[in-house]
Amino acid sequence: MTLYLSQDAAARALGADATAEALAAALAAALAATAPGVRLSRTGSRGMVWLEPLLEVETEAGRYAFGPVTADMVAALFADGVPGPDHPACLGLTEDLPWIKRQTRLTFARCGVIAPLDAAAYAAHGGLRGLRRALGMSPADIVEEVTESGLRGRGGAGFPTGIKWRTVLGAEGPRKHIVCNADEGDSGTFADRMLMEGDPFCLIEGMVIAGLATGADRGFIYLRSEYPDAARILARALDIARAEGWLGPDILSSGRAFEIELRIAAGAYVCGEETSLLNSLEGKRGVVRAKPPLPALAGFMGRPTVVNNVITLAAVTGILADGAAAYRDIGLGRSRGTIPLQIAGNVRRGGLFEVGFGLTLGEIVNDIAGGTASGRPVKAVQVGGPLGAYFPPEMFDTPFGYEEFAGRDGLIGHAGIVVFDDTADMLAQARFAMEFCAIESCGKCTPCRIGAVRGTEVIDGIARGEPGRIELLQDLCETMKFGSLCALGGFTPYPVLSALRHFPQDFTPRHREAAE
Amino acid sequence: MASQPPEHLPPQHLPPHQQGGPDDVAARTRQILDAHAELEGPLLPVLHAVQAEFGHIPEAAVPEIVQALALSRAEVHGVISFYHDFRTTPAGRRVIRLCRAEACQATGGDVLAADIRARLGIDWGETTADGRVTLEPAFCLGLCACGPAALIDDRPAGRLDTARLEALLAEAAP
Ligand SMILES: Cc1cc2nc3c(=O)[nH]c(=O)nc-3n(C[C@H](O)[C@H](O)[C@H](O)COP(=O)(O)O)c2cc1C
Ligand code: SF4
Ligand code: FES
Q1: Domain count within chain A
Q2: Is A264 on the interface with B (CB under 8 A)?
């Protein structure tokens, strides 16, 4: 019999390691007599962060969920042996929990189910099917399949993945590269982290497929330094993949080669922007490059380069395994397939929820997340990271899709959803957006570098009740929007202006203290 | 999971235990450079490895890097100063990276940050006088569904309040 407990960083942050120790002690002592042969498997996370540490008990009917199970609860829970479905603390079969049942888990199908570094389990749970199929296809056919699926980049910009790959496939060059953007800098997002910690082979498989599709034989994973657990797991996953022949000079005995190097970033938000990232990989300051040339034609060291987000690359494995149509048939409008929503901030139920595009923001916040953790009314929801707009509840009818959010002066970005209750001070949030931009600006353009600093001062002026400051802030935002080279300077006005538009009552001198 | 990272990965904030003189630094930096000779664009991995070794990037490492990678001094300093992770002075025995970003703000992160700075008597980026703790700001740790969040060295902690963070610190750096 097997017990499952997550080793995901969020589970660890909530005490999963201590729970594991308590379980080991219980298994060694009392349970050795009553229930011999019970073992503990550490998996990735199911994404139900509010239930972490989530313990699952395997039975013939499936896995039963218990959670949160902190270390101090273990002794009581196991007092009469391994707890089963009849135990009062049992939440039911994990697969039957509404949070799991309502999802369409394609990219995260294995996450939380298997041990992340168990190569045999990966293959047994559908891994490698996409890669095996791709090995039998021509590069152009792989690109066509991805194009047909309608997959758009999940890193934020939403660019069609198939079109990017076609450009790299058509580019001349003795050497091409696949760069996985694992910088995941957007606040409120953790899908990349969860996938890398919970199902790292899926990312590796996706990168190999990208290499086959475009003629690239070298890959990089550019991983943010804030993810030490993901770094450890990926490093081991790469070693294991090489040993299994999933990477290296002769992939699955096909004669095709692909190699991946893990690179650790150094704590600059702007390095998530693809050209800044490429400079960083080359060992330079992470300054944004002007486009053209596109990275697809002149990327790493001037060579043709695919830059894709973790989730984009992971989704490709499923698209190749099950065909473009199965993916394309899910979704809304021009947003095809599934999106891993990351529900965070002040919510009762926070975590990762993978679903087809199209749920409304209200369904996500009220239904799925269950409203605020504080029990107070929702005031604002920031969607799409630090460059995303703040939405008031009046706009909860907005369906989750690229065009749908853009049409309301917002963006979905990497699908982070951060909920604030009515104690939030939106002037302070607007000020933070400017401060963040000032801290993280790469310094290349004046509207971003100087404008953001000026923005914090103007907002402080509003808080002090100085006249004409609101108009000045609006002008400044226009300048930043149109005079910035990249979206850091160009999109910082979104959170600022949305806060101002929807919460004008917060931009009054009353809020003096909060501004500082 | 093993609790120690593999050697080629940079543990970001090891305490500055291996302080050597300038000659030791130069010699060890040359070894690090040799170990990274096969990489394309090796500067960041080299800087991470130097920092993992010495707890910061000592000035004596820079000329070695300049020479081996055929860069100018200004270029190397430019890179060191561009990235928030690289430090040119030693850190405290433990480094707290406390999240200041939005999802943690929504769960009381600002109050926690103000509290902990007052308790430790330091501001962002500073180290306590006794060298026990360095406090760094982080902008998201991917722990946004269980904020306020922090990394204490490399160990994640969630749903923090001042008491819990202080307890974790007391445990990590008695
Ligand atoms: C300031 C800034 C930060 C970004 N950060 C990230 C990031 O952390 N991860 C990511 O995948 N894309 C990020 N992007 C988007 C990338 O530039 C790029 O569009 C993406 O990596 C392409 O991959 P995709 O097509 O699979 O989304 C960022 C863009 C900007 C302007
Ligand atoms: S907008 Fe800001 S971050 Fe982007 S290129 Fe300009 S200065 Fe750099
Ligand atoms: S916003 Fe604090 S961990 Fe993500």
Answers
A1: 4
A2: yes
